[in-house]
Specification:
Elements lengths: L7 H7 L40 E7 L2 E7 L4 E8 L8 E8 L6 E6 L7 E10 L10 E6 L10 E6 L18 H7 L4 E4 L13 E3 L5 E3 L13 H11 L3 H7 L4 E3 L27 H15 L15 E4 L4 E5 L26 H13 L4 E5 L9 E4 L5 E3 L13 H11 L6 E5 L5 E6 L12 E5 L19 E7 L17 E6 L6 E6 L5 E7 L4
Parallel strand pairs: 8-9, 9-12, 14-15, 15-18, 18-20
Antiparallel strand pairs: 1-2, 2-5, 3-4, 3-6, 6-7, 8-22, 10-11, 13-14, 16-17, 19-20, 19-21, 22-23, 23-24
Helix pairs in contact: 2-4, 3-5
Length: 536
């Protein structure tokens, strides 16, 4: 497919500036847009680098996009891109050398991209021992941000929870086929709401599912036990990318990643105690956090290197005049999981943390986009338990504390945030985490804390994991369940066989600026739809 109106002069004008980045810790890229390919030589297949896990595109911005790949050996990354799939006028960027230090992952940032265009990619690696020996290229494509005139509709999808509770890649089922359902919707981008992997969830060759059926997984050593070593954390990401649905999706749909708990271990916080968990020989939670975060940053197609805080996950992703996405990190700055009943705001009751809360308030107030979507990795008003303390008092993993009263614990921070943004219009929250889909309307008329403007929160997931729920509501902020689809009472951890896998889809109309939300099932069918008009 070619855009005949996009001539060579215009293309070179728009792509004259670019930068190169890398996912490898401590490495830097080099290259030039005018670099010419080294002449190829005949080499055996064993000598040629390979890209067994495909490519990813991520963190789109104004004229920018990250391109991620992984080699199977030390090799230098190369990206060719054009507005035509025939590559009549390609540009080429020579990137960093992927080494063992980054598990052979690397990334290149393309800049100076024209708005409102489809970009075609060819990504390859040149051998570090002989740059004339190159890999076969892997193809991909994506659409750049809409033009500033705002005349193009926006569509994005979101969900979370991949390969959880032992439900991994089952070729007989068609693999993680919800990714194919999302790809067929042709979204502009995808928000992964967290639990990109389940580092604490071993995957076995066979798992007994409901109705006596047997779920048959592909298994590699790195997923057969809980992740403790850096290689085991990395192996979880490699495992997911063995699925052909995911690789095909990744090559066509730009992604925005955030993380939650299972990138490290279940419900982790500073108070996490693994002393009684016989699955772990590494009991130091800080060691596991460091390894889990390194693997996450290596495999996420995100632009983290230029954040004010090194390796920061929370960030703003602008997507033209109709939409800004505010990606939260509800994991890194929280206080210990506890009974969550602190009477005053403190380090013990922190959830987002003061710096992130200030950033979010400031960023929302500065946004000129019609719609402001807050991508949260956990819901606000659902009770998410985390066992009990030594005295038998319930502990909590998310914001809610189950008492339906005035804000206490982590609710204090959220109350302050909601109060301070109440004058900002068209704010919508999206999330995952609880393994079922729902639509919640937060209404001060039904809340104990009332100093906020009503808003919607939409829940999707899981992508390929066990299905649970529904969770109980906490009445502090007045959530009302307008829709939910979850297993029947008494059923839990249903396999993907049961069909309770969900993703969310948003469509923003460029003329009316209406925000239409659909919650879709494993096959892409809508199970709930709602259209929100923009506030005047």
């Amino acid at each position: 497919m070619t855009n005949p109106g996009y001539n060579r002069r215009r293309f070179l004008t728009h792509t004259g500036a670019f930068t190169v980045g890398t996912a490898a810790f401590g490495l830097s890229g080099c290259g030039s847009g005018s670099s010419s390919a080294a002449p190829a030589i005949i080499a055996s297949e064993s000598e040629r680098p390979k890209l067994p896990y495909g490519i990813q595109i991520g963190d789109m911005g104004d004229g920018r996009a990250m391109v991620w790949a992984r080699s199977d050996r030390p090799a230098r990354m190369r990206v060719e891109f054009d507005t035509s799939d025939s590559f009549l006028n390609p540009r080429q960027v020579i990137g960093p050398t992927a080494t063992e230090a980054s598990d052979f992952t690397s990334r290149i940032e393309l800049t100076g991209l024209p708005s409102g265009e489809k970009i075609f990619l060819r990504v390859s690696y040149d051998s570090a021992s002989d740059v004339k020996i190159g890999s076969e290229p892997v193809a991909g494509s994506f659409r750049t941000l809409p033009s500033p005139d705002g005349k193009r509709a926006v569509r994005f999808v979101w969900s979370g929870d991949t390969a959880g509770q032992g439900w991994g890649i089952n070729p007989e089922f068609g693999g993680m086929k919800i990714y194919e359902a999302m790809r067929k919707r042709q979204p502009d981008f995808f928000v992964h709401s967290g639990d990109n992997i389940y580092a604490d969830g071993p995957i076995s060759a066979e798992v007994k599912a409901e109705n006596g059926r047997i779920w048959k997984n592909i298994v590699i050593p790195e997923v057969s036990k809980v992740a403790e070593t850096l290689n085991e954390f990395r192996g979880r990401y490699r495992y997911n990318m063995m699925d052909e649905n995911i690789r095909r999706f990744n090559a066509e749909v730009p992604q925005i990643w955030q993380w939650d708990d299972h990138e490290v271990t279940n419900n982790w916080s500073a108070s996490k105690d693994l002393g009684g968990d016989i699955r772990y020989s590494e009991k130091n939670i800080q060691t596991l956090i460091a390894r889990g975060k390194q693997a996450f940053l290596e495999y996420a197609p995100m632009r983290w290197a230029d954040q004010p805080e090194s390796q920061r996950v929370y960030r703003r992703i602008p997507y033209g005049p109709l939409l800004d996405v505010f990606v939260l990190d509800m994991r890194s700055y929280r206080g210990p999981n506890s009974n969550n009943l602190q009477a005053v705001d403190s380090d013990a009751s922190a959830f987002l943390g003061a710096a992130q809360v200030k950033w979010l308030k400031d960023s929302l107030s500065q946004s000129t986009a019609t719609w402001k979507v807050i991508a949260a990795d956990m819901p606000i008003g659902l009770q998410v338990p985390d066992g009990k303390d030594a005295g038998g008092t319930a502990c909590w993993e998310a914001i809610a504390n189950g008492n339906d009263g005035v804000p206490l614990g982590r609710e204090i921070e959220m109350a302050g945030l909601l109060r301070d943004i109440k004058s900002i219009k068209n704010v919508v929250w999206i999330t995952a985490d609880v393994h079922y889909c729902a639509a919640h309307y937060y209404d001060p008329a039904h809340a104990k804390f009332t100093d906020f403007s009503p808003f919607w929160e939409f829940v999707a997931g899981p992508l390929n994991a066990g299905t649970f729920g529904p969770n109980a509501l906490d009445g502090t902020f007045g959530p009302q369940v307008k829709f939910q689809k979850a297993p029947a009472a008494g059923l839990a951890n249903l396999s993907p066989f049961a069909g309770f896998q969900f993703f969310g889809e948003v469509n923003i109309d460029p003329q009316t600026k209406a925000f239409t939300i659909d919650l879709r099932d494993l096959d892409g069918a809508s199970v709930y739809s709602n259209t929100l008009p923009p506030a005047a």
